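ok so i was messing around last nite and threw this chain in just to see what happens. nothing serious, just curious
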Amino acid sequence: MRKFYTSESVSEGHPDKLADFISDSILDEFLRQEATSRVAVETLVTTGMAVVAGEVRAEQAHVDIQRTVREAVQRVGYTKATYGFDAEYSAVLVAIHEQSPEIASGVDTSEEWREMSDAERQDPANAESRIGAGDQGLMFGYATDETPELMPLPISLAHGLTRRLAELRRSGELPYLRPDAKAQVTVVRDGEPHEATLTLVDTVVISAQHDEDVTNEQLERDLEQHVIRQVIPAKYLNEDTKFFINPSGKFVIGGPHGDTGLTGRKIIVDTYGGAVPHGGGAFSGKDPTKVDRSAAYYARYVAKNIVAAGLARRALVEIAYAIGRAEPVSLRIDTYGTGVLPGDQLAEIVWQEFDARPQAIIRQLDLQRPIYAQTAAYGHFGRPEFPWEQTDRADALRAAAQAAGAQL
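result:
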C-alpha cells in the first residue's frame, strides 16, 4: 500500500523564523559575555514592531537588546522600510525581567544534590547531579537511515528548498526574491521508510515572496529550474510529480508585515517534519539548562548513534524530566521493528553508555557557548556543524550490544 509523507520548511525570513533568530541571537550574546547566563526569551514581530519578553539571570553580561535585535533583522535581509518591517525604522520594545528565584533554585541545586551528604557530594560520580532540569517535560530524538544525514527524506528536501531560495536571494542570482518563503514536500512510498522499494516525490509546494514586477510565469520557470531541480535528485522525480509554485498568486506582502511572527511556533519544522512525535517545548531563546532544548538535542545524539552503530535502521528516543531533578524520570526507545535488540534491552544499554543529566548533557555537547542563532532556520537536526550530530559513541554502543548478545 502506498503511503504519503509530507514535511514543511520555512525560510529565515518567515516571521516565525525571524522571531526565533532574534531570540537565539539574544541568547548567543548573553552566552558570549557570560557562559552561565540563564535565558528564556521570546520575540513577537509584526508590522513595524518587535516585542522581546522573557526572563534572564546574568551577573556579568550586559546585552544591548535593541542593537542585537536590529542586527539580527539586518542579517536576515529586512533592510527596506517598504517591506513594512525593517532593521532601522521598526520599533523594538523590551520587557525582560529576572528569572524566577523558585526556578533558579531548582536548577542551581537539584533535589538529589540537596539530599546528599557532604561525603556523597565529594564523589566524582555525583558531580553531574548538582544542577536540576529547568523544566518538566518529554523530549524526542529520532534518526533514520533513509538519508546520509540520518534524517527523514521529506524534511531534508524541504529544508534544502528553502535554503536554496535564500542562497539565490543573497547571491543576487534571483534578485527579485524577498526574505519570506515556504516549501513543502510530499513523498510517496510503497511501505514504511525502511521497507520501501519505491520512493518518489509526489508534490512540491513553494511559496516565495517576490518584488511587485515579477510575473507568475517567470517565478514558476525560475524556481523549477534553479531551486526544485537543483535540490531534489532526479531519481525522486517523474512525469507525475506535481509542482505548485506560489499557488495563491502574488506574494509581495510578506514577513512580519504580512503575518505576525512568534518564537517557537514552528517546532515541527525545527525537528523531524512530523515523522515522529515532538515534545511540547520550543527550542529558541532558551539556554541549555532548559531541557526542552538540550535534552531534545541529546535524544537526537543518542538516536543518531544507535542508527550509525547499525543497531537499528530507525530509532526514536524519548526522555522525560521533572523540574528541579537531575536524573531523567524515564527513557523509552522504539526501533519500529528494525532493532537488533528489543527496545527495553537497548534502553538499558543507553542508560549505561549515555548520561542524560542536564549538567552532563551541557558538558558532553559543550552547550554553554554562542552556537544557537544558526539553529533558528533550516532545522536543528541533520546539520554536521552541531555537536549533537556527532556519531562518536557508535563504536561503544556496538560493543555493548554485542556483549548483550546482538548479532551484528
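not much to say yet. The radius of gyration is 22 Å.
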